[in-house]
């Protein structure tokens, strides 16, 4: 394994798998047509999206446990195939309970099973480029809607929403399976030999490895899980409602709104890579502080200027920032608690994200429904949440000595 594994092949394959399971971020494209077909209320439909993300900690922790023991290939394969199948059968749900069960519970379990294996396994191959690797690998998840949103909209218009679910789900199950054939498990502690990229040898990694019990005893854990939740809240709000926000507040057509979903996804993907690389240079917590400040700016713009250009700027900024949060936090967990138990440890910290995923879409849809499609009050809620996250990030930075840049720390 250590003589034959090319870490970049594993990275690209993991990105491909998450590109398939990341179709969850196109759910706002399906929500309106599904409500029209079944006669369900949009807030009730969005509850399925909330459940899909909220179940995340269970498969993340379980999948992370198995990934830490060398089962990454099988966890990724099982997860992406089952997710594709569950997405296909979502369109066949005839009751809201079936929607919650198939898309929310079953789909959420499968998606996060694959996510856990791909992320926790791949990041171990890149101890020298944690931010960049994490950004690239999670970029696969964020980039899915760039391709999927316009395809989904076209399929819905031509075949109906049920067939769109069916066709896209089965296609992604097959594609994801093919990518999983190239996944290999990483040693717990490695460093690459850049002169021979195919060779990986064990090395000592700075920082003590902590198991989940030791992690829970650390004050840093509680700061990280809250910061993660508060940072992800705004991104999940937009991811689950971008199409509806564009149509109800800015007068966009369904096809134009789908294009903005793709724009958000492109920004989300770019943000994971960009902020991951930036965090390797200036320090992760400094990057987080800048991200939270930019989120506040974006929402102030959205509530202050009701123009198409402001929606575009807001979508791009929030997408970049959501991507940054998702790209940086895996590395923050590894820096604090070591690589050996990254699968389980990140799975537990991921509870922060899942909590936000359960609350944000439901709160957003409910506030919009209560205000005739106006999302302004939801935007104010997001500002308050991110302000709290910014405060906690400053506390964390102070506790870590202002977070020296990674380049300085490596010297």
TrEMBL record:
Keyword flag Membrane: yes
Domain of life of the native organism: Bacteria
InterPro entries: MFS (IPR011701), MFS_dom (IPR020846), MFS_trans_sf (IPR036259), Proton-linked_MCT (IPR050327)
GO cellular component: plasma membrane
Keywords from the named record: Membrane, Transmembrane, Transmembrane helix, Transport
Database matches in PROSITE patterns: MFS (PS50850)
Chain ranges of the Major facilitator superfamily (MFS) profile domain: 9-401
Bilayer-spanning residue ranges: 7-25, 45-67, 74-94, 100-119, 131-152, 164-183, 220-239, 245-266, 287-305, 311-332, 344-363, 378-397
Membrane topology label: Multi-pass membrane protein
Main location: membrane
Pfam families given in the database record: MFS_1
GO function term, MF aspect, one: transmembrane transporter activity
UniProt subcellular location: Cell membrane
PANTHER family in alphabetical order: MAJOR FACILITATOR SUPERFAMILY (MFS) PROFILE DOMAIN-CONTAINING PROTEIN-RELATED, MONOCARBOXYLATE TRANSPORTER
Descriptive protein name: MFS transporter, OFA family, oxalate/formate antiporter
Lineage: Bacteria, Bacillati, Bacillota, Bacilli, Lactobacillales
């Amino acid at each position: 394994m250590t003589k034959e594994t090319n870490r970049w092949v594993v990275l690209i394959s993991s990105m491909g798998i998450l590109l398939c399971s990341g179709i969850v971020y196109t759910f706002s494209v399906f929500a309106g047509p599904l409500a029209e077909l079944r006669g369900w209320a949009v807030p009730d439909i969005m509850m399925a999206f909330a459940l899909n993300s909220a179940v995340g900690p269970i498969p993340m922790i379980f999948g992370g446990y198995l990934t830490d023991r060398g089962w990454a290939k099988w966890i990724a394969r099982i997860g992406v195939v089952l997710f594709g199948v569950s997405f296909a059968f979502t369109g066949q749900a005839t009751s809201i309970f079936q929607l919650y069960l198939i898309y929310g519970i079953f789909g959420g379990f499968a998606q996060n099973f694959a996510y856990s294996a791909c992320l926790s396994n791949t990041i171990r191959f890149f101890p020298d480029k944690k931010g960049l690797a994490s950004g690239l690998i999670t970029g696969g998840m964020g980039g899915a809607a760039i391709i999927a949103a316009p395809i989904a909209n076209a399929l819905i218009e031509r075949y109906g929403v049920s067939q769109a679910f069916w066709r896209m789900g089965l296609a992604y199950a097959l594609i994801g399976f093919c990518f999983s054939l190239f996944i290999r498990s990483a040693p717990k502690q490695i460093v690459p030999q850049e002169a021979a990229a195919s060779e990986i040898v064990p090395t000592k990694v700075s920082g003590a490895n902590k198991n989940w019990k030791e992690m829970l005893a650390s004050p840093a854990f509680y700061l990280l899980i809250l910061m993660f939740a508060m940072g992800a809240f705004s991104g999940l709000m937009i991811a689950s409602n971008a199409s509806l926000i564009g149509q109800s507040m800015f007068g966009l057509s369904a096809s134009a709104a789908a294009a903005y979903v793709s724009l958000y996804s492109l920004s989300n993907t770019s943000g994971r890579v960009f902020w991951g690389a930036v965090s390797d240079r200036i320090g992760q917590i400094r990057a987080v502080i800048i991200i939270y400040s930019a989120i506040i700016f974006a929402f102030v713009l959205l509530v202050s200027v009701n123009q198409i250009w402001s929606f575009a700027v807001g979508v791009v900024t929030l997408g970049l920032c959501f991507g940054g949060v998702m790209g940086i936090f895996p590395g923050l967990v590894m820096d604090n608690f070591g690589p050996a138990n990254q699968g389980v440890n990140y799975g537990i910290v991921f509870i922060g994200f899942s909590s936000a995923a359960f609350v944000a879409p439901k709160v957003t849809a409910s506030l919009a429904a209560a205000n005739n499609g106006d999302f302004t009050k939801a935007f104010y809620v997001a500002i308050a949440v991110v302000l709290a996250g910014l405060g906690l990030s400053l506390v964390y930075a102070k506790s870590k000595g202002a977070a020296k840049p990674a380049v300085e720390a490596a010297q």
